[in-house]
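Hello,

Our lab assistant flagged a job as stuck in the queue for most of the afternoon. It eventually completed. Since we weren't sure the result was trustworthy after the delay, we are filing this so someone can double-check. Below is the sequence as submitted and the structure that was eventually returned. Let us know if re-running is recommended.
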Amino acid sequence: MSRPTTAEAGAASGPGSAGAGRPSPSPRARGLSVGAYPRYVAGKLAGAAVSLLAVLVTSFFLFRMIPGDPVKFMTGRRPVSAEQIAVYRREFGLDLPLWQQFTDYCGKALTGDLGTSYQFRAPVVDKITEALPNTLLLTGTAFVLYTALGVFLGTRSAWRHGGLGDRLHTGLALTLYSIPSFWLGLLLIIVLSVGVDPIPGLFPTGGMESGREEGFAHVVDVAHHLVLPVVTLVAVEYGQTLLVTRSALLDEMGGDYLTTARAKGLRDDLVRRRHAVPNALLPTVTLVFVNLGRTVAGVILVETVFSWPGLGGLFYQALSVPDLPLVQGLFFVFAAAVILMNTLADLLYPLFDPRVGR
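-- returned structure --
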């Protein structure tokens, strides 16, 4: 058999694959011009800045439509005089005209001051900083697990599409993805926390820790509380990654470069890992970055169901007042995380496919 030509060898590597053992080439080496990429980056950063500004404006006006009077909450719903109500309104700037409240809010937000919480009488930034590690622990752990599981099962299902395993994985993913996360969380609490004969209660019903452990025992205690909310998130979220990965890989499987790779005698597993999967990753990368942005927001309903002391639970608690500065601050942080991760994904696209930045 004659040796493959250089063109055939290049086709076998696929349009976006950097051959095995070689470093990934720079954007310029992959065909992205020096001038095009900075313009592409500038456009994306400008779009992100406009989006953040829109979120800032939206967060102010949107939550003022929520029914409820923060002053009544601050007074404990006790009968108070008009003078006392006026003092509270003046203290938090609620007596100012709406346009002045808006300009004050925007001016302070641009300097990193998101206001003072009505119910906690503490800076909003401090409350967010306090709850953020708890949310990242929960959603970050779930993110790693459901992303790895979704990509692994998605590639397996696509490579053996139509088989029994593909049908089982796809059917289960669609079923779990359609289940509301709070309902699944409540079901797991009933079965695995409260216990249903013959299944005993194995896990805590909520919270992050028992409060009685120290050292390594404390780590084990937190991990014990973490199991059910993480299982809930993984069960609901992994299906989306699986379906996107499976669909993208199925689109690549008919490529000529895969046929050439097989003709060169490469094992089927090697063709999938080195050639097909890298070229099918762009849609999955998009989804991964979107989900990464969502890890900051957490999952409000899951944190509420499991009484997890994170940003999601804090947001739910602030909505019930309504604690306008805290709600606005959390909403801005949630949206900013997603916008920044989407922008980062856009900036990395040309490294996967140089045609994007041209």
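-- support follow-up --
The delay was a queue issue, not a problem with the job. The result is valid. The chain has 15 helices and no strands. Residues 1-31 have pLDDT under 50 and may be disordered.
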